[in-house]
Amino acid sequence: MRLGAHIGTSDGLDKVPSIARSIGGEAAQIFSKSPHSWRGPPIPLELAASFREAVQREKLGATAIHHCYLTNLASPKPVNYAISKRTFLDELGRAELLGVDAVIFHPGAHTGSGVEAGIDRIAEALRWAVDQTPQGTVRILLENAAGQGSTIGSQFEELAQVIEKVNAPGRLGIAVDLCHLFASGVDFRTEETYGAAKDLLRGSVGLKAVGAFHLNDSKGELGSHLDRHQNVGKGQIGLEGFRPWLNDRSWAKVPGYLETPLTDDGYAAYIEDLRALKGLLA
Ligand SMILES: [Zn+2]
Ligand SMILES: [Zn+2]
After folding, report:
1. What is the CA(52)–ligand 2 centre distance, in A?
2. 140 CA distance to ligand 1 middle (Å)
3. I need a surface site. Which of 5, 96, 116, 133 has the fewest CB within 10 A?
4. Contact (CB, 8 A) for 66 and 31
5. What is the tens place of the pLDDT at every residue in 13-50?
6. Which ligand has its closest atom nearest to the C-alpha of 179?
């Protein structure tokens, strides 16, 4: 796995790659704008170019944008759905401009309109976005959900249905958040349970669909459906629960990003988390 983390952009987008390296990472995930706003200021071309150069210079193995939190491509409300689609397309454009490998997003919540209808809306929106960007190279990764409320994607089977309906081979995949997976009720802390979890992936989206991991421990217990990240080894998953993922050669080229809690002392917690993960490598 290519270990990295979600890095803030307050020092400038083009500083992200060197920050990722300085904490011991070789991959970086970012927000391309505030995650709580629909629109962000356009990214100046020069800044995009210097971001790309910095990625090369620091030899990052993978980069991704995490989509903002407001969009809901499963929304039954027409206005919200329309804005969500627009925002998603805009984010794809920003991703192409920055030359990142992937856009990772939360599929959405059906808010009472039913899982099937929600899946249909997500697929329709993605099909539209793919059609709008025929030359696009950025991979669209649907993140698995912890299963809070009416969120879609706490079952890999739901993500598989979306991918199948969009039918855009190569453009779509999934991001597996280990905190969400654990909170959704899938255990993987022993060799046996890890094998069963991997079989779930194999039998639904397929192993090749996995384009990224989020390496978060979980504050909530197994099956709690709580989306509460914890530092590696300090939550209910525990350090050993990360070992099989890190040492499985199926994921050798897949990036794993930390989204664990940080404190006042900058990235100290990330440095510690990455060190703990590296200590697991066989
Ligand atoms: Zn995540
Ligand atoms: Zn989360």
Report:
1. 27
2. 14
3. 116
4. yes
5. 999 999 999 999 999 999 999 999 898 999 999 999 99
6. 2
pTM, 2 dp: 0.98
**CA of 259 relative to ligand 2 center, distance in Å:** 8
Domain range spanning residue 51?
Answer: 2-265+273-278
> Which tokens belong to 59?
């030899």
pLDDT, one tens digit per residue, over 182-227 is 999 999 999 999 999 999 999 999 999 999 999 999 999 999 999 9
Domain count, the chain: 1
- What is the CATH number for 238? 3.20.20.150
Task: Report the chain's mean pLDDT, rounded to a whole number.
Answer: 97
